[in-house]
Amino acid sequence: MERPLDPTPEAARPEGRAQARIGESEKITINLGPIDLGHVDLLVAEGVYANRSDFIRTAIRNQIERHAEVTRQSLARRSVELGLRRIARADLEAALAEGRRLDIRVLGLASIAHDVTPDLARAAIASLEVLGSLQASPPVRAALADRLR
Q1: CA gap 41, 114 in Å, rounded
Q2: 129: which of 16, 60, 86, 105 fits an S-S bond (Cβ 3.0–4.6 Å)?
Q3: Quick one: which H or E segment has residue 128?
């Protein structure tokens, strides 16, 4: 079942702290020049940040906050759900029973339940766009490969 759009950043919602931790396992690699890296290390050495990762997470959050209005408008225009979207077997079966196929768009984490079969996922999900992270079994992920954007 699709949830209504809530443009409030997840970390600002009361339940957001616990849910936000789910997505923190994603790793990214960035390249910094020696001067930028030196500035980061100096701020860490001065105790402004606990470590490089703390600096980078803070910088990213500050930029997200700085561009919150652009994000809000884009989410509304694109009908994207913000935060955690759990896709349960019952949700997919209900959609099929109603003769519907789901177009799912998530900014955050989309999690497809372990009991969802590849055939059920293909039958019930017309498209899946995830800006963030997708948790799904390898067979379900493979079954939806042509629908992922």
Answers
A1: 42
A2: 105
A3: strand 125-135
